[in-house]
Write a structure and sequence with these properties.
By secondary structure, the protein is α+β, with helices and mostly antiparallel strands. The chain contains 19 helices and seven strands. It has four domains: 115 residues, no CATH class; 30 residues, no CATH class; 89 residues, Orthogonal Bundle (DNA polymerase, domain 1); 165 residues, Intergrase catalytic core (hpI Integrase, Chain A, Orthogonal Bundle).
Length: 456
C-alpha cells in the first residue's frame, strides 16, 4: 500500500553544515587568486500522485572559480581534496601565465601541470617547450641504436664518474712535460714531447671531451704516414697520463686505439761498410772517437752513449755495463767489446767522466760527416760522405748476427727483442764483411793522444 501524500516530506530537513563552511575560500599568489565556493548538489524527482517536484537527497559540492584572461571559468567537484588540488594547480598556472594549460581538461591538464612542476623543481629557468625539443632531438639520435635517452645518460655518467677533475688539454700538456722533466728524461725525448703543443692548439677543450672522430680528423691532416704514426704515439702517452691522473675516462684509450693509421712502407736498414768505418775512425776528430767506437763495436744507442760514463767501461774485462737507468728499455745489460774496440778506446780511457763530447746526437753526426768529407776532398774525391741515420747501430747488429748466427745473444747485447733482430738484421751483410768490421784496428799505436775533457 502506498503511503498517503500527507505523510511524505515535501522537502528535506535543514541541510547540515557544508565542509567549506558558509563562506567561500580564496587562494592567492601575488595578484592572482582562485576561489572555492560551497554549494549543494540537490536531487529531485516528480511525485507520481501530485506531479510535484520533490527533493529526495543532497550532497556537498565545491565550485572552483577563476578568470582565464577575460573569461570566467567554473569547475565543479564532488570531492574536497580534488577541488583543492585543482585550485592549487590553477593558481600556479595563472601565476606563471600558463592560461593555455587551463583550457585542457581532465587527464591532459593533470599531465601538463605535473610536467611543468617537475621541470620547475629541477630548473625553474628552463621552458617546457625547450625541454621537449631537446628530448625529441636526443631520442631521434638514439633511435638507430635502439637506446633510450636514459640509457645514454647512464652510459655517459658511467664514463665520466671516474674523472676526478677536469683538465684543459693545454694544461694537461704542460703538466705532462713538467712531470717528465722532473723525472730526468733526456732532452731528445722531451723535445719530442714538445710536439704535443700542436695537439693542445688543435683542441682547446677539456681532455674528457675528446672523441674518436675528433682524433681521427687530427691525425688525417698531419702529413706523411710516418708523421702520423709518430704523433699518434706521443698523443697515446699523453692520454694514458690523463687516465692515470683521472682527468679522462679509461675508454678514451679505446677511442685512441681505434684511430685508423696509414701503413708504413718498409724502410731499408742501411749499414756502413768496413771501408766507411775505417774512414770515420781514421779521420774523425779525436774527441769523438770514443762515441764512434762504442756505437760501431758495441751497438749502443746514441741516447745511451750520452748517459754513459767511463766508469761503465771495463777494458780489462772487455765489457760495457749499460745500467738500467741509462738503457732505453730500463733493463741492465752487459755488452762485450771486441779487441779492436779495446785498442781504439785505451788512449782515451779514464776512471770516470762522461764519454760523449757533445750533448746532442746531431752535433756528433754533423762533425763526423764534415771530417770524413774533408778527408775525401783532400784525397781528390769531391762527393761528400753520406751519413746514415742509426747506421752505426744497424751495422753492429747486422755484422754481429752475421758472425755468431745467434739471434738471442745479439738481442741481449743490443737491448732489443729477438723478433726485431731477426726481422731487420738477418742475412743483411756477408760474413766476410763482418770479420773485416770487427777487425778494424788502429793503423798504428796512438801514443800521442791526450784525453780531452767532455764538453759541458
Amino acid at each position: 500500500m502506498k503511503t498517503p501524500l500527507s505523510r511524505r516530506p515535501s522537502r528535506l530537513d535543514s541541510p547540515p553544515i557544508h565542509p567549506l563552511g558558509s563562506r567561500p575560500v580564496t587562494l592567492k599568489q601575488g595578484s592572482v587568486k582562485v576561489v572555492l565556493y560551497p554549494a549543494w548538489n540537490r536531487i529531485y524527482r516528480l511525485d507520481s500522485l501530485t506531479g510535484e517536484k520533490v527533493q529526495v537527497s543532497q550532497h556537498p559540492q565545491f565550485v572552483l572559480s577563476y578568470y582565464a584572461g577575460a573569461k570566467r571559468v567554473l569547475k565543479k567537484f564532488s570531492d574536497l581534496a580534488n577541488a583543492k588540488e585543482a585550485a592549487n594547480r590553477a593558481l600556479v598556472s595563472l601565476a606563471n601565465g600558463e592560461t593555455e594549460a587551463l583550457k585542457l581538461t581532465g587527464r591532459d591538464q593533470n599531465i601538463y601541470l605535473t610536467a611543468c612542476e617537475d621541470l620547475r623543481r629541477w630548473n625553474p629557468d628552463l621552458p617546457l617547450d625547450t625541454a621537449i625539443k631537446d628530448y625529441v632531438a636526443a631520442s631521434k639520435e638514439l633511435a638507430t641504436l635502439k637506446a633510450t635517452l636514459a640509457d645514454a645518460v647512464r652510459e655517459f655518467v658511467t664514463r665520466h664518474k671516474t674523472i676526478r677533475e677536469s683538465r684543459l688539454i693545454s694544461d694537461l700538456v704542460t703538466e705532462f712535460l713538467d712531470v717528465k722533466t722532473k723525472a730526468g728524461k733526456s732532452k731528445r725525448y722531451l723535445g719530442d714531447l714538445g710536439r704535443l703543443r700542436k695537439f693542445a692548439t688543435a683542441f682547446q677543450i677539456p681532455v674528457q671531451q675528446i672523441t674518436g672522430p675528433m682524433l681521427q680528423l687530427f691525425f688525417d691532416h698531419l702529413g706523411t704516414p710516418r708523421t702520423q704514426v709518430n704523433y699518434w704515439r706521443l698523443v697515446r702517452s699523453l692520454l694514458r697520463f690523463a687516465v692515470r691522473r683521472k682527468y679522462a675516462p679509461r675508454d678514451l684509450l679505446e677511442e685512441m686505439e681505434g684511430v685508423e693509421l696509414p701503413d708504413l712502407a718498409p724502410t731499408k736498414t742501411e749499414v756502413f761498410t768496413p771501408d766507411e768505418l775505417r774512414a770515420m775512425l781514421d779521420h774523425t776528430r779525436p774527441m769523438l772517437t770514443p762515441w764512434l767506437v762504442i756505437a760501431a763495436f758495441a751497438g749502443l744507442r746514441s741516447a745511451e752513449i750520452l748517459r754513459l760514463d767511463w766508469s761503465d767501461v771495463n777494458l780489462d774485462r772487455k765489457l760495457i755495463t749499460v745500467d738500467a737507468t741509462k738503457a732505453k728499455t730500463a733493463a741492465r745489460r752487459v755488452v762485450p767489446l771486441c779487441d779492436a774496440a779495446v785498442a781504439w778506446l785505451k788512449p782515451y780511457a779514464k776512471a770516470q767522466g762522461r764519454i760523449a763530447f757533445y750533448t746532442e746526437e746531431n752535433k756528433f753526426c754533423q762533425a763526423v760527416k764534415a771530417d770524413v768529407s774533408r778527408a775525401r776532398r783532400d784525397a781528390g774525391q769531391p762527393s761528400p760522405f753520406q751519413w746514415r741515420r742509426n747506421g752505426l747501430r744497424h751495422s753492429f747488429c747486422s755484422y754481429r748476427l752475421a758472425l755468431n748466427k745467434n739471434v738471442a745473444e745479439v738481442s741481449l747485447e743490443a737491448g732489443n727483442s729477438p723478433y726485431m733482430i731477426f726481422k731487420h738484421y738477418r742475412e743483411l751483410v756477408a760474413e766476410d764483411d763482418a770479420r773485416l768490421w770487427f777487425q778494424c784496428f788502429p793503423s798504428s799505436p796512438a801514443t800521442n793522444i791526450i784525453p780531452i775533457a767532455a764538453a759541458a
